[in-house]
Amino acid sequence: MLRGALRELTIGDPAELATDIGPVIDDEARTRLEAHVAQLQAKHRVERLPLPAAAAAGTFVAPTLIEIDSLAALEREVFGPVLHVLRYQRAGLGALIDAINAGGYGLTFGVHSRIDETIDFVAARIRAGNLYVNRNMIGAVVGVQPFGGLGLSGTGPKAGGPLMLPRLRRAAQAPLPAGTAPASLGVLQAWARTSGRSTLAEHCAALAKATPLGAELTLPGPTGESNRLRFVPRGRALCLAADDDELLRQLAAALACGNGAVLCAPGAEALRQSLPAELRLLVMATPDAATAAADVALAVPAQAVALRRLLAAREGARIRVVTPQGGDYPAEALLIEQTMTVNTAAAGGNASLMTLAPA
User: Fold this and answer.
1) Cβ(288)–Cβ(268) under 8 Å?
2) Residue 155 clears pLDDT 90, i.e. is over it
3) What DSSP string runs through 112-176?
4) Residue among 100, 152, 110 at smallest CA distance from 133
5) Phi and psi (nearest 5°) for 105?
6) Taking the CB of residue 254, how many other CB atoms lie within 10 A of it?
């Protein structure tokens, strides 16, 4: 079916309604794509649609279908009319999702399935900013599918969502919905209380009431489509501070948003060892921030500039450095905004319509 669909495509001037695929953005992009196809062509099955005479000039790339046997064949983002097909065993779906996440890119992800368990499994595991279920993966609409990725595909808030305009105001934080505090924050709070750290215990209690973790906003959309904006953990937070009290405040902020943590400070390992066993599973310690594996970083203002320069020099995705605002580390920086768009009609209809009260 894919090969048949490939042969039906029309390449040409994008101003024409009959055109399916136009040129890529510039000659550099075209050269990069052609080099990628040529490299894979030596080891993999490749099928290409011949370019028509009208596409002889310009930066057109022939639509290409490539069967690969491993995600290792993809070394970077391939942004063009090139579709890679990888067959996998159902039992290996989890490992496949993990391999996709390890690639570092996380803009959009699509899944087609009528099995709710499969959809839930994939949606909970994938690291991407926009999830599409049983529909295409293009055409995000402002206010309906807030758009933005993570990792190598972006680090900031989404464009076109309900939180976008409040964030454009100077020194303002967007109002976030209330979520559910994770059990790990409660463990830290109990430990703080029994170890005589009453201020930390009170801070944990305040974070538990304010965390947006797991909260969802229902967004408008057409009939037969469900759109939700949800708040999920960013991953692992690098906590950099000069004293234990600030380090623990950073740890509390990270845990409140469902993240793990890497403590980076003199005596960080000793502090980690003093924590309950449940927390030591989520917390690491390192003397070197330059090599710490993290998805976000927390620092006091005095250390933030140097940390930004240090992290900017590293390979891989850009890591956001977060400083306190009004005394607290903003939860919105420790969470990922994830949009989930579901074509409910493809699964037999939108059941929510049956629960609507009569006008």
Assistant:
1) no
2) no
3) --S-HHHHHHHHHH---SEEEESS-S----TTTS-B--EETT--SPPBSSTTHHHHTSTT-----
4) 110
5) -90, 145
6) 31
The tens digit of pLDDT for each residue in 329-344 reads 999 889 999 999 999 8
Report residue 260 as tokens.
């793990």
pLDDT greater than 80 at residue 246: yes
pTM of the model: 0.84
350 φ, ψ to 5°?
-90, 100
Share of the chain above pLDDT 90, in %: 71
**What's the rounded Cα separation, in Å, for the pair 342 and 44?**
33
What's domain 1-87's superfamily in CATH?
Aldehyde Dehydrogenase; Chain A, domain 2 (3.40.309.10)
Contact 261, 285 (CB under 8 A): no
CA dihedral 268, 272, 274, 278 (to 10 degrees): 170
Residue ranges of domains in the chain: 1-87, 235-333
Task: Report how far apart, in Å, the C-alpha atoms of 143 and of each of 85, 124, 163, 220, 227 are.
Answer: 32, 23, 10, 7, 10
The 3 state secondary structure assigned to 258-295 is CCEEEEECCCHHHHHHHCCHHHHCCEEECCCHHHCCCC
Which residues, in sequence order, are CB contacts of 186 under 8 Å at separation 6+?
204, 208
Q: For the chain, give percent helix, strand, coil, nearest 5.
A: 35, 20, 45
Question: CA-to-CA distance for 130 and 338, rounded, in angstroms?
Answer: 6
- Kindly state the tokens that stand for 134: 């049983």
